[in-house]
Amino acid sequence: MTTVEERIRTIIEDHPIVLFMKGTPQFPMCGFSSRAVQALKAAGAGDALYTVNVLEEPEIRANLPRYSDWPTFPQLFIKGELIGGCDITVELAESGELARLVADALKKD
């Protein structure tokens, strides 16, 4: 049986762009998650965006803030690294940096 931390690590390592959010991209359950998804789509993440609905994953919701040392949702990880929450994601999108991070994450080595 894997621990919740191992599950979180596996998700983050297996997907180049991961958003732990409330709801789904089609049906976000909070404004912050909705804005983060919109910013990522605009930055070109498209089908590469892997999301985890923390409302349906109570163990992840309870443990991710400890794992990442980030208290709120959504939480964006790109190439295994915590980028931040909604505000940081939107700021990066507005500066053009998010599109660069997304493009870099989607490059085939």
From TrEMBL:
This is Glutaredoxin. It holds the Pfam family Glutaredoxin. Belongs to the glutaredoxin family. Monothiol subfamily. Keywords: 2Fe-2S, Iron, Iron-sulfur, Metal-binding, Redox-active center. NCBIfam families: Grx4 family monothiol glutaredoxin. It comes from Thermomonas hydrothermalis. [2Fe-2S] cluster binds at residue 30. PANTHER family: GLUTAREDOXIN FAMILY MEMBER, MONOTHIOL GLUTAREDOXIN-S14, CHLOROPLASTIC. Glutathione binds at residues 22, 61, 73, 86-87. Residues 17-83 form the Glutaredoxin domain. PROSITE patterns: GLUTAREDOXIN_2. The keyword Iron-sulfur applies. InterPro entries: Glutaredoxin (IPR002109), GRX_PICOT-like (IPR033658), Monothiol_GRX (IPR014434), Monothiol_GRX-rel (IPR004480), Thioredoxin-like_sf (IPR036249). One of its GO terms (molecular function) is 2 iron, 2 sulfur cluster binding.
